[in-house]
Design brief:
- This protein has about 475 residues and is mainly beta.
- The chain is built from 3 helices and 31 strands.
- The strands form 8 sheets. A 5-stranded antiparallel sheet has the order 1-27-26-25-24, with no helix packed on it.
- A hairpin with a 5-residue loop joins strand 28 and strand 29.
- The longest helix has 18 residues.
Length: about 475
């Protein structure tokens, strides 16, 4: 009886802490956090927040896709809670929709629309921009319209841009000259006043990449990584395979410093080839394993053409794969490069919703993933929605990440208009100036040295204890 009493007190203290920071998750959203971590909601009411970044004085800059602009939010930390004390528009409505970057000195801001990538002179104190310049243009397509920006820290002046396909199966992506489904790097320090043309200029890092919305540079090795949203509604040998295939992919795209990666500038298969997640649900699967690339049926979208499995085996392979349709939209590394963080936006065309979570990937000191391409457990889930059956309507939908100097992760959720913050729980969490309390805490600050219970388990446990007491009475 004493054991259950202690557990009950731990759970109750956890649930009290879980409600101590405002604002709360929007509507009926019910997040759940892994043990050892905590989270809180920092901001709500934003217009489809996508790309986010922290400037050099700690303002949170947000691309509000629903408003076509960048907004700045002044953050305050008090009693372990981070909140927004003031907000203002940094740009007018310029049809900005996702990409955002900031120079190391904090004085140049970068952003993107469907058509172009821009730079601005940025004043962090005044939260204002001036001297807008177009850096790269000629990127307009339909369907996948975001243009992710990555400013290299290893090779100053190099701006990486990801451009997706113009449809689910984009036949034009088979032509290198189209510029579709490609990732390129542009030396913006050498720009002579005329904007680069995405299709004609730049250094090709990879093509045949359906929609690598997430792009990151490893802080130790300088390796460039892209995380890919794969295709929907595919057929193979006349069989609908979309429920559990193809896999989402993590692609190694090489380096910017002249070191040649094994697949740098090569074709990664799209629109002919896709990686397997569940080989046993594919017809004619004797030579297909998790992560290997396979061919699909010809269709009107592919100009009634297709390729063979043997052709697909010769294309640049992924480094890791993930459950189909989870829609990864970003990847960010922590300072050591041992952790890669990925927000999965969530499925829309799968019977059982999947994704809607923030996960962690483990990397070695050499900047390569710990797991290999055949693994189905490479992603460790950290922040999830408690019940995916309620998704997408009553769930947060992660989009983009930003990390501060303390390793805390800020995460945008476009569907709910929110910004979350995730951090690791430390032994001094209850007395430090960091965010010790969260909207859903992974452990309590006093009793956590005795037991650790996530709130979702506490709710269930308390219900069972209450039923037991009622029966006993």
């Amino acid at each position: 009886m004493l054991y259950f009493t202690v557990i009950s007190l731990v759970c109750l203290s956890t649930l009290v802490l879980a409600q101590s920071c405002d604002p709360r998750p929007s509507g009926s959203i019910s997040p759940s956090i892994a043990s050892g971590y905590q989270f809180q909601v920092v901001a709500t009411g934003l217009a489809a927040p996508r790309g986010i970044i922290l400037d050099n004085v700690g303002n949170l800059l947000v691309v509000e896709q629903g408003a076509g602009k960048i907004s700045a939010h002044t953050l305050r930390e008090e009693n372990g809670c981070v909140s927004v004390t003031g907000s203002r528009n940094v740009t007018d409505d310029l049809n900005l929709n996702h990409g955002i970057e900031l120079s190391s000195d904090g004085k140049t801001l970068y952003a993107s629309s469907t058509e172009a990538a821009y730079s601005f002179e940025y004043d962090a104190t005044g939260q204002a921009v001036s001297a807008m310049q177009t850096l790269v243009s000629n990127m307009t397509t339909q369907d996948h319209t975001t243009r992710t920006l990555l400013l290299s820290r290893k090779v100053p002046g190099m701006l990486v841009i990801s451009r997706g396909s113009t449809s689910n199966i984009d036949f034009e992506a088979t032509m290198l000259s189209s510029g579709h489904s490609q990732i390129k790097a542009f030396n913006i320090s050498a720009l002579n006043g005329t904007a680069y043309d995405f299709s004609l200029d730049g250094t090709l890092l990879g093509w045949g990449l359906r929609n690598d919305v997430g792009v990151a540079e490893h802080p130790a090795s300088g390796a460039i990584w892209g995380i890919e949203n794969s295709a929907d509604q595919l057929h193979r040998d006349g069989v609908d395979i979309h429920e559990d295939n193809p896999a989402e992919k993590l692609n190694f795209l090489g380096y910017l410093n002249g070191t040649q990666g094994p697949y740098q500038g090569q074709n990664f298969g799209y629109p002919w080839c896709f990686a397997a997640w569940k080989p046993n649900s594919l017809p004619n699967n004797s030579n297909v394993t998790v992560g290997s690339q396979f061919a699909i049926d010809a269709s009107q979208d592919s100009d009634n053409q297709n390729r063979s499995d043997s052709y697909c085996a010769e294309q640049a392979p992924p480094s890791l794969v993930f459950q189909s349709h989870m829609a990864p939209l970003d990847i960010k590394f922590n300072a050591s490069g041992r952790e890669g963080w990925v927000p999965f936006h969530g499925s829309w065309n799968r019977d059982a919703p999947t994704g809607y979570k923030l996960s962690r990937l483990d990397f070695n000191d050499d900047g390569m993933p710990v797991d290999n391409v055949t693994s189905t457990t490479a992603a460790t889930d950290i922040l999830t929605n408690m019940d995916n059956s309620k998704c997408p309507g009553n769930c947060f939908r992660p989009v983009a990440l930003a990390m501060d100097t303390r390793g805390r992760i800020f995460m945008s959720s476009d569907a709910s208009g929110e910004i979350y913050m995730v951090s690791k729980v430390t032994s001094s969490a209850s007395t430090s100036s960091g965010p010790s309390a969260s909207s859903t805490a992974s452990q309590s600050s006093g009793a956590s040295n005795i037991l650790r219970f996530p709130p979702s388990r506490c709710y269930v446990l308390l219900i069972f204890i209450s039923i037991g007491i009622a029966v006993a009475l």
